[in-house]
Amino acid sequence: MDFLSLQLRIYSDKDCEVSSRNSRKAPDYSINLSTGRFHCPACNWSYTRRDSMLAHYRYECGKPPRFKCPYCQLCSKKTSNVYQHVRSVHPNEAVTLVKLY
């Protein structure tokens, strides 16, 4: 048995090559064995780290933007995107954002 098999205690579906530490929690902990990436169960976007996929799934996937630029109409799901936008597009303005909800 290889290292990955030992670490994950594989429960696999031969058709999609998905494994999990617990077969009942496969959507939250699933990893594609052929690519080694974690896929969002809702949109199939993939990430190299499980925590990145879970953050995407909980806070971004299928949700409207939460943050807005105070100087124009740009909206984003991530604060970092709005801060970077303000720094580059509105360089003489204070770096801030508006929370939509």
UniProtKB/TrEMBL annotation:
Domain (C2H2-type) ranges: 38-65, 67-95
One example GO MF annotation: zinc ion binding
Pfam (any one): zf-met
InterPro entries: Znf_C2H2_sf, Znf_C2H2_type
Domain of life: Eukaryota
Keywords: Metal-binding, Zinc, Zinc-finger
SUPFAM superfamilies for this protein: beta-beta-alpha zinc fingers
Protein's UniProt name: Isoforms A/B/D/L (Drosophila melanogaster)
Species annotation: Cotesia congregata (Parasitoid wasp)
